[in-house]
Amino acid sequence: FKQLMQAGLTKSETMFFSKAKGITKPDGKIKTDGDALKSGEVGFAYITDSTEGMSSAGNPSRVICATPMNAAGDKFDATPFDKKAVLLRIDNSAVSVNISVPPASTDNTGDAISGGVSVIDPASDIWVGNTLTVRPPLQ
Predict the structure, then answer these.
(1) Angle made by CA atoms 105, 64, 135, in degrees to the nearest 5
(2) Strand, coil or helix: what is 126?
(3) What are φ and ψ of residue 5, in 5° steps?
(4) 52 phi and psi angles, rounded to 5 deg
(5) pLDDT tens digit string along 5-46?
(6) N or C: which end of the chain has fewer CB within 10 A?
(7) Burial environment of residue 30 by CB neighbours within 10 A (0 to 12, 13 to 18, 19 or more)
(8) Which of 137, 67, 136 is nearest to 97 (CA)?
């Protein structure tokens, strides 16, 4: 996310904030790379294809950013948004989808479901033939 700031696409940290567990509102200090987007100021996970990177030629439903994810980046936290996850897709769209929390869950986390499958399941149609990498928010 820092690369977006370095490229001059934004001069504010606020667009990277999300009300997720362990995330605090950014302090607005961006003068140096060490100040901008410190650990705990970014509420979105970054999702990519680790074998070839992502491009607009890929499946337009591919998710590139998601919130609220747990610290491990393998489940979504159902608490902040009433069992909803926010997904930013490669086609520049943003959608909210339901988080399915198993009854046995002790931490209220589950899978964000779109088209009947988890959006971060490598077996999903949107990831066919690609290797999925999830970089969770730094807390």
Answers:
(1) 60
(2) helix
(3) -75, -40
(4) -135, 5
(5) 666 777 777 677 788 888 778 777 776 666 776 777 778 888
(6) C
(7) middle
(8) 67
- Dihedral sign (CA 65, 71, 76, 80): negative
Task: Check: pTM over 0.70? Answer yes or no.
Answer: yes
Token couple for 6 = 């370095």
Compute the distance between CA of residue 21 and CA of residue 135 in angstroms, rounded to an integer: 16
Dist. CA 137–CA 22, nearest whole Å: 9
The residue length of the chain stands at: 139
Could you give the CA distance from residue 127 to residue 110 in angstroms, rounded to a whole number? Answer: 19
Of 139, 120, 133, give the one whose Cα is nearest residue 61.
Answer: 120
Alpha helices in the chain (DSSP H): 2-6
Name residue, tokens 């370095």. Answer: 6
Instruction: Provide the token pair at 53.
Output: 């990177």
Gap between the Cα atoms of 46 and 2, Å rounded = 12
